[in-house]
Write a structure and sequence with these properties.
300 residues; 4-stranded parallel sheet; Rossmann fold; binds zinc ion; 10 strands; single chain
């Protein structure tokens, strides 16, 4: 190696060691990653996201490179044991040096059980009796999550404690403003029955008094049979459903086929941020986007 290259290599090594925390903070899904990113803003480091692009957290598989990254992480933020099924085995096998931070255990969090009856269809991989961990869909829970994120990061990186605390105050204020905005926008839509694609909205509807009559959760690769279509159509008619919402990563044709012969309209809701770019703003884009899509379909 000639002398210049030796110097370049040494400088590169030095630069790498100055960012020792790169890739050490990992978050499972976009809404949670967004809150972690907001708390870390300005620290020079950002969390790594596992479920990228338009992938669904309910049907995701880790890449080998992600499994390796997890082994070398300082901390993994995730919703909880019954949510990120793609993480279960990997988390159990991680060295003790990797801290696990499940949001379902955050102090102050409100937990509801999964709804497996009364018109709500379970995802294939849902565990009976477990909690519904779409926790971010309630702003109050998002604040509890932010608190837990701050405590966890401050213990790991005490040099950034003041920054995290300042970011948490800003984040709390933004979430309060979001909550007030959503209360105002959604009040006129309360009680109009809707059906959602998968049951991701329990916390949202309880926060804003929405009337979600059920979910359809159909496997996009296997269109529902005639019997299932008939039952879903009956549900739509009986509950006087105004809108049936699909999700962006699922084919619209299947939902369209359910609406034939009913008065329901169709819309799109994106509860896990499939269409959004990751980052500190994603959480707000996700929640405002749901309100806007509800207004678009239910308004008038
Ligand atoms: Zn979900």
């Amino acid at each position: 190696m000639n002398r210049i290259w030796t110097i370049v290599a040494a400088v590169t090594l030095f630069a790498a060691s100055a960012h020792a925390e790169d890739g050490k903070v990992i978050a499972s899904i976009k809404p949670l990653h967004s809150l972690v990113a907001a708390i870390m803003e300005g620290s020079g480091d950002a969390p790594v996201l596992l479920v990228t692009g338009s992938a669904s957290p309910h049907e995701f598989a880790l890449r080998p490179s992600q499994r390796r990254a997890l082994e070398h992480a300082d901390v993994v933020f995730y919703m909880g044991d019954s949510f990120e099924l793609f993480l279960d085995k990997t988390l159990a096998a991680l060295p003790a040096s990797v801290e696990r931070a499940p949001m379902e255990n955050a102090p102050g969090i409100t937990l509801y059980r999964l709804r497996l009856a009364h018109g709500f269809e379970a995802d294939d991989d849902d565990v009976p009796g477990a909690h519904d961990l779409h926790l971010w869909m309630s702003p109050a829970n998002a604040k509890a999550m932010a608190g837990e994120i701050v405590r966890t990061l401050s213990a790991l990186y005490p040099q950034n404690r003041t920054l995290y605390a300042a970011n948490a105050i800003k984040l709390d204020e933004k979430i309060d403003a979001l909550d007030a905005r959503l209360q105002r926008r959604l009040a006129p839509l309360a009680d109009k029955p809707v059906i959602v694609f998968h049951d991701a909205f329990q916390y949202f509807e309880k926060s804003y008094g929405l009337n979600v009559a059920g979910s359809i959760t159909i496997n996009p690769d296997r269109p529902p049979g005639a019997k299932r279509v008939r039952a879903l159509r009956e549900k739509i008619v009986q509950a006087g459903v105004v809108c049936v919402f699909r999700e962006p990563s699922f084919d619209g044709h299947v939902v369209a086929s359910l609406l034939g012969g009913t008065k329901a309209r169709s819309g799109v809701l994106d509860p896990e941020g499939a269409l959004l770019s990751p980052g500190p703003e994603l959480y707000f884009q996700l929640m405002d986007g749901i309100a806007r899509n509800l207004e678009d379909c239910l308004g008038s």
